[in-house]
Amino acid sequence: MKRQPMAPSVALAADHGGITLKNELLPWIQSRGYAVTDLGAATFDSSDDYPDFAEAVGRAIISRKAERGILVCGSGVGACIAANKLPGIRACLCHDVYSAHQGVEHDDMNVLCLGGRVIGPELAKDLVDAFLRASFGGEERHRRRLAKVLELERKATTKSNIKNQNEK
Ligand code: RB5
Questions:
Q1: What is the model's pTM?
Q2: Ligand 1: residues whose CB is within 6 Å?
Q3: How far apart, in whole angstroms, are the C-alpha atoms of residue 91 and residue 68?
Q4: pLDDT tens digit string along 59-69?
Q5: Which of the 8 DSSP states describes residue 168?
Q6: What is the pLDDT of residue 164?
Q7: 106 given a catalytic annotation
């Protein structure tokens, strides 16, 4: 399928808990016209670690190599926690379609996390579809809330604040 106009580019990755679902999602997302970068795992390895894949997807977004990320681990939880440690990443575990698009529309979520041991491929496709079709609405109240989220991140990551927090 031809790439849809304005379709976001996608970085996709999974650990061993999510690789089966990731490998099913990859050709399906491509068939919908999205450019997808597969950041691993390339093969099943029970000793691989979800933070490594979360970092790869997060860095792809931060460096603007991709506009959206999809992370799959066993539950989706670990990948989500790890991805949110990266500045500029707004990742969420969504196993319902409403949250998968509303999280983008209101909260500018840029990474969707899925649990490969929790949901099946057909629900996962619906979630990915809702996530990738959605865009940030930009209403004033959502911008205001997003600005507060970004301010939380800035306060938590600036050097002087880190020093003050450690001294408390
Ligand atoms: C790996 O066994 C599993 O812990 C991981 O994929 C994920 O579910 C963590 O949240």
A1: 0.93
A2: 15, 17, 50, 73-75, 77-78
A3: 10
A4: 999 999 999 99
A5: -
A6: 64
A7: yes
